[in-house]
Amino acid sequence: MAAEQSASVTHSFRVPPAEVWPFVADTQRFNEAYGMPKHRIVETPRADGSVEYRAFTRVGPLQVEWLERPVNWVAEQWFEHRRDFVKGPLTFLCATLRLTAEPGGGTTASYTVSLAPKGLLGRLVAGRVIKTGIANFHKACASIERHLAGRQALVFDYKAPQPDEATRARVMQQIERIEASGHGHGLAPRLVDDLFTRQEIDLMRIRPLALARRWGVAARQAVELCLEATRSGLLTLRWSLLCPRCRVAKAEAGSLDALPKGAHCPTCNIDYERDFARNVELAFAPAPAVRPIIEGEYCLFGPLSMPHVKLQVTLAPGERRTLPAAFPPGPYRYRTLEPGLQRDVELGETAPAFTLGEDVIEVGPAAASGSIAIANETGRPRALVVEERRWVEDALTAERVSTLQAFRDLFSHEVLRPGDDVAVEHVTLMFTDLRASTALYGRIGDASAYGLVRDHFAFLAAIVRRHDGAIVKTIGDAIMAAFHRPQDALAAAIAAQREVASFNREHPETPVAIKLGLHGGPCIAVTLNDRLDYFGSTVNMAARLQAESEGGDIVLAEDYAQDPRLEPLLQDLRVERAQAILKGFAQPIGFLRLRCDASVAS
Questions:
Q1: Regarding the domain delimited by 402-595, which CATH topology (the fold level of the hierarchy) does it fall under?
Q2: Paired residues of 72 in beta bridges
């Protein structure tokens, strides 16, 4: 084998490592921006439970094949990415980055490219590979500086493929339709600008919640925009079954009824089940006629591909390492990249020491402050992963999107397979009914009463949508609505009763009263009458509590009212406590009757 070659370069930033890391460690974005070809990954489980990652691509006339080694990194400090080649002009290629905090709040970034050529061709291209890697790092740092200073929108210099005039004209018509629908919120031109200018890595999985955060708009507005853009043909949607370990989609479908109940993740070598609240995600991508996206990977294991992972380090059999590392206190999961071992721990001010055994991860105090000690006492390589124990905040889960009115209006066909049911971790349900509606018909006549009932449905639907909920179904003069967050449901209930009271003051000749009950908890989602519906004791409780309403009030179970998210709204209401035996429940149920005659913001 030819002698190893390497070159290093440094760059000084004026901001601390925490602000530099999200850009310099985004290897997927870096590789795309600077012309690295996408590659195909084949994952093959080994007998010991680990996985071989073999990559294939073409560079000019050459077929290149390599073994992709899991990237090692400590967040905000360093990463090391190595590829060992099976075919091609190199034996290995390794890129290493280290960030050093400097006095005054700056950062020194040190980047090294090292490789070993193979044969005459390898010796000829080795220098060029190193030179290109160093030059691209220089360009990337300059681009990051401009981005941090606000002089450049995208992180890296990137020229997206431009659409032809026919595509632009068609997209302009789609923008008009989206905005005319009421679901665009003035954001459709912004979405199109993203589709025509941003990198592929931003568009392969468009997450509305991430868009909302980046644009500084309400989450519901971004979700409604993407749903309407899908109906107009600007986007396509896909349901994904995310792996609970690496959090990458390992099963996808274009409709909910085609999504499997479980999947296998070859990366983690585990089987896992469907969970509406945690790993069933609705995401979007550009329609191929608008911006085609090439399949493949730019970097399988980049640190920013898994931003929840704060440390990933591979140790040889019997190896011990002590690494500088300091993570904020909080809940973390310590696991191996290989399947099997994991342990959930609350991390305090002092970082722990880890011992990886065959069947257990032992955790003890670290020998030195601000460091993590790792020991691999097994007879094979093991990779330790330390991750934040929070699910991906930007994932629009099936549990959440199914409680939005726009989803149910635009995609009512998105249902489960007949006979299929899914456990829903939590949903808040609202039941309403018009009090004495029969007497109302007799008092003001059928035509007038029907118009009033129709208007009451419309105003309730508007309030439910405004508070991020959805009408599940109507039952006579009653509605059943669902909300992802209990505080949204209570705010909607308060707004409804206050608006009814205002209507009655303005129309004393035709007063109406709405009976309203709320309850939340786990239930079962099923398809009934060609729509997603909910069943279970939570549904029954919400319906029974509505029956206890007198009209003009809000009734909810006393134990449910203990949810701390409801406390700010309850403070301004007049509360009465009562108890009743509800149909279908063996024990008396304590409930609160909320009067909305105090000043409450809607």
A1: Alpha-Beta Plaits (3.30.70)
A2: 80
pLDDT band at residue 600, thresholds of 50, 70 and 90? very low
Return the closest-CA partner of residue 229 out of 262, 274, 187, 267: 187
**Burial degree of 507 (CB within 10 A; 0-12, 13-18, 19+):** exposed
CA 121-126-131 angle, to 5 degrees, is 140
Which residue ranges does the chain devote to CATH 3.30.530.20?
Answer: 5-148
| Cα 376 to Cα 366: distance, rounded to the nearest angstrom | 15
The amino acid occupying position 176 is: E
pLDDT confidence of residue 599:
38
Instruction: Quote the pLDDT of residue 266.
Output: 77
The partner residues of 578 in beta bridges, in order of sequence, read 591
Q: Residues spanned by CATH 3.30.70.1230 within the chain?
A: 402-595
Among all chains, which residue has been given the structure tokens 């310590």?
334
Q: Does the structure show a pLDDT above 80 at 501? A: yes
CATH class of the domain at 5-148? alpha beta
Using the structure block, give the residue that is written with the tokens 């020491």.
353
b/e 181-193 (16+ beta carbons within 10 angstroms → b):
bebbbebbeebbe
Report the pLDDT value the prediction gives residue 566, as an integer from 0 to 100. 94
Q: Please name the helix (run of DSSP H) or strand (run of DSSP E) that holds residue 353, with its range, or none.
A: strand 352-356
pLDDT at 420: 79
Q: What is the pTM of this model?
A: 0.83
Q: How far apart are CA 190 and CA 541, in angstroms?
A: 43
Amino acid at residue number 211: L
Please give the full DSSP string across 197-224, using - where no structure is assigned.
Answer: HS-HHHHTTB-HHHHHHHHT--HHHHHH
